[in-house]
Amino acid sequence: MTETVLPVEPLTRAAFAPFGDVIETDGARHFEINDGSTTRFHDLARVDVEAQRGHVLVNIFRARPLPMPLTIAMVEKHPLGSQAFVPLEAAPFLVVVAPPGETVAPADLRAFLAEAGQGVNYARGVWHHPVIALGRETDFLVIDRGGPGDNLAELFFGEGDRRVVEVSRSAEAAAP
């Protein structure tokens, strides 16, 4: 069995735009509120949950790191709403995505390294691997959709179609 290595790209707004939003303060529109005691970083992500009478869920996911190199054997998507992941501590994490559609080919996968201080919001229907913590167990604030309808589709790759991704030890070591 031959597995293709998936390169890991830096997570930037431009590179991630086809898949959703990067949630970060760097370069974000901001202004002072609360009589100047607070800076508001405004409108960082488009939360999309209204399909089929959905509502916003606010969750905490506690993710344990997966062993590297990681074989990408499956992806999932949420056809009725977006899904945002923001680490609750300064911790990098790995993001694996593919464009929305009825199905996805392993060749369509892209991997991004989210640095400490970044989060992501997967747009409705974007294929993605479940959250991948690096270096240590990490808590994530997750904002997604609750309500009626089936909002989860999973796709499992055959053994010959899987991709392998590896994050450098220095990136994993950056996790506090």
Give the key terms.
176 residues, mainly beta, Jelly Rolls, 5-stranded mixed β-sheet, 5-stranded antiparallel β-sheet, 2 helices, 5% helix
Give the overall silhouette.
Answer: globular
Taking the alpha carbons of the first and last residues, their distance comes to: 36 Å
CATH topology: Jelly Rolls
Any guess at the CATH architecture?
Sandwich
Helices and strands: which structural class?
mainly beta
Summed up, the domain count is: 1
Percentage of residues assigned to helices:
under 10%
Q: Which CATH class? A: Mainly Beta
- Oligomeric form of this entry? single chain
Sequence of secondary-structure elements = EEHEEEEEEEEEEEEEEEH
Helix tally?
A: 2
User: Which regions are unreliable across 5 or more consecutive residues at pLDDT < 50?
Assistant: none
Share in β-strands: 35-45%
Major sheet details: 5 strands, mixed
As a whole number of angstroms, the C-alpha radius of gyration is 17 Å
